[in-house]
Amino acid sequence: MQGKDQEEEFKLLSGLMTDGSGALVDLVSPLLSHRDFKRTQNAVCYRGMLDVIADGDQLTPSSLYGKVRGFEKVSEEYVNSLITDGTGQGALVEAYALNIKDSGLTRKLATLSSEIRSKIESGDSPRDINKFIQDTADEISDTSGSIVGKDTSWDYWFVKILNSMSDDSIQKNRFPTGFSSIDRFLDGGLEYGNVDIIAGRTGMGKTSFGLNMLGNVALSGIPSMMVSIEMTGEMITRKMIASRCKIREGDIMSNNLTEEQWGAIDSLHHNQLKNAVIHIDDKSFSLFDVETSIRHMVRKKGIRFVVIDYVQIIQVGSKDKRYLEIGETINKLKELAKRLNIHIMLLSQINRNVEGRTSKRPAISDLSESGKIEETASRVFLLYRDEYYNPDSEDVGIAEISLAKNRFGQTGTSRMSFLKEYTSFEDMYYV
Description:
Blueprint: H1 4-19, H2 23-28, H3 40-54, H4 61-68, H5 76-84, H6 93-121, H7 126-144, H8 154-166, H9 169-172, E1 174-175, H10 180-183, E2 190-191, E3 195-200, H11 206-219, E4 224-228, H12 233-245, H13 249-254, H14 259-272, E5 278-281, H15 287-301, E6 305-309, H16 322-340, E7 343-349, H17 370-376, E8 379-384, H18 386-389, E9 398-406, E10 412-419, E11 424-429
Parallel strand pairs: 3-7, 3-8, 4-5, 4-6, 6-7
Antiparallel strand pairs: 1-2, 8-9, 9-10, 10-11
Helix pairs in contact: 1-3, 1-6, 3-4, 4-5, 6-7, 11-12, 15-16, 16-17
């Protein structure tokens, strides 16, 4: 006697076969993968049905057997029985599909539980077990969600874009940086699911610019997070207070504040930041820890925007050349941003080659491990302050923010005011 799972699998296949036109296959394919089946021969038959319909053929015992012939566990007799037994009901195939999906997920979770228990008993480290859980959970999510079998044709995506344009959801997938001089190049803002780069030499203000942007985004209502590998949470918070309240960091450190400045800090804390979500992680140093921390805060706080300072010092553990480590880091973070539908802004160092040139303005080729960074990042912002190299410069207090790469649109340069004593960037004018 067949178990309930196998019985429903047979009824589903029978219903699909009885229909023959492929309409019911189209109905259930977005809901169900062949990996969700318990019985191998049923999984093979279902996959064969998808192939028959994909070829534009009528679904018959003959056309199906032509696809599954050669699989030891699938006989011609079994394929014919899908018609002759006639146990399937077309009207119920969607219900069958959902039940099979749920049963498949239950089996996967049971297997995961057993494997976790085995690893614990074997003495595996908590870190290794945690990584295994996360990797397996991602795999289950990929194979068990409604995305399996989804139509990926031109028509599907074309209609999806038209629908999103009509209900303004395209803009819902964007958020402004809070700098109008930057947003003008971004068609309104940054997109979720992407990784961008802010790069500059030491002293250009990368961290300050990233923090300023983080503050702008968080205050607009988008939960945000700073992963600081180089600086402590205290230092990051002090910089944010300085830029928002226009108070020198040194005065904050020495507690040399006026009553007016205390009032500005109080207003920042109780008014501006009252409903803002800003999380600072200064404990993660490895790529694994960074990924784990981001996943946790996405689940716990709904984080959507992450700034990481900075990419070259994230520990990967690879014994290969450094540029391969950078490539691995960015690719992993890009996968994470896409999977979690968040935006990750990576701060990056510019190499020393620029110091030997007459013009110190950076190019993408000046990025440390530039090939991997340029290849992977959706956008690359380059920071330059002429006064850093030329104290008598006419551009004292001016920062150039060059959008050197933009996969989605135009490039260009914005000139912004940089208040060095407050580590604060502000819109100024366009060029």
